[in-house]
Amino acid sequence: MNGGEDKARPGAAGQMQPNRGFVENGWFYEEDQQSTRLGIRIDEHLHSEQSRWQKIDVYRSVFHGNILTLDDLVMLTTRDEFVYHEMLTHVPLCAIDDPREVLIIGGGDCGCIREILRHPCVEHVVQCEIDERVTRVSADYFDWVRPVTADSRVELVFDDGVRYIEQNAGRFDLVIVDSTDPIGPAVGLFLADFYTKVAAALREGGVMAAQTEAPFWYPAELARIHKQMRMAFEHVQHYWGTIPTYPSGSWTWAFASNQRRATDHFDAARAAEVSKHTRYWNPELQSACFALPAFMQQAIAGKNPFDL
């Protein structure tokens, strides 16, 4: 996930609480809602720069591998990035019969591209990332970036994702919104106006998949995003997984479409082949991940499950 600056994350009551990341005594800490800290022991600070859009850093950890942070918030670690990228890609792709054209909005670390290319039916992948430096830096520290971006099926576009969507109506089988948190320049990627433009960029039967934040920490934001998506899509279904280095360790995504539900189609043969190369997603998880705990259902319905 990347793009944007001045990042913060919303509190349970919908108030924006500033997050901060910092290094202290050989540990990288990310403080969330001024209440919780995730600490990762780091062994080396490999890279730091300020791009036009954001601060980009890469750290090395013996346990977690390389760690990418944007504006001092963890975007990925080598140890657990596969969860986020596999769930954001394989769940929608295996629910679409014969997907050929895929667009990624954001995704500068190219992890989504890596997973999409495991589907031989996909003929063309466009990644529209506003900050080229994220991709170039990632290429130096994450070994999948150069091979996947050299694939003839891949097109890299460094531009504003909203503008790109507006120029490509009715083109894609799948649009993946791999964005940072809904704050600052990225906030527009979580509004009904943007989702309506995504819907217009889809072919008949097309799907949008997007990250929808951490349900334990941000239930009000999950509800708000769901409401915005429902203004643009007839069907919006959330699914979830575990990512140890993300806030609270749990994360959610959404499957949205005007013509299909996530369970309407499942390409079992393709899924079986893809799962030979995955470490989190598998065919059994394809439907299981949509079974939400009660508190998530309550949050999506607009209730605060932690209002005890």
In words, what does this structure look like?
The chain is of the alpha/beta class and about 300 residues long. It contains ten helices and 16 strands. The protein has two domains: about 70 residues, Spermidine synthase, tetramerisation domain (Spermidine Synthase, Chain: A, domain 2, Roll); about 220 residues, Rossmann fold (3-Layer(aba) Sandwich), CATH 3.40.50.150. The strands form four sheets. The chain has a seven-stranded mixed sheet, with helices on both faces. Strands 6-7-8-9 form a four-stranded antiparallel sheet, with helices on one face. It has a three-stranded antiparallel sheet with strand order 3-4-5, with no helix packed on it. Strand 4 and strand 5 form a beta hairpin. Helix 6 packs across helix 7. It starts with 7 loop residues before the first strand and ends in an 8-residue tail after the last helix. The N terminus is likely disordered.
Quick recap of the structure?
With 308 residues, the chain is of the alpha/beta class.
Share in helix = 25-40%
User: How large is the share of residues in beta strands?
Assistant: 25-35%
Our count of domains comes out at 2
User: Which whole number gives the mean pLDDT?
Assistant: 93
| Major sheet details | 7 strands, mixed
Low-confidence stretches: 2-16
Intertermini distance: 33 Å
Along the chain, the helix and strand elements come as: EEEEEEEEEHEHEHHEHEHEHEEHHH
What's the tally of helices? 10
Strand order of the biggest β-sheet: 12-11-10-13-14-16-15
Secondary structure: number of strands: 16
CATH superfamily of the largest domain: Vaccinia Virus protein VP39
User: What is the 3D shape?
Assistant: globular
Alpha-beta classification? alpha/beta
Q: Judging by the overall fold, what is the CATH architecture of the largest domain?
A: 3-Layer(aba) Sandwich
Radius of gyration: 18 Å
CATH class of the largest domain: Alpha Beta
Q: Fill in the CATH topology of the largest domain.
A: Rossmann fold
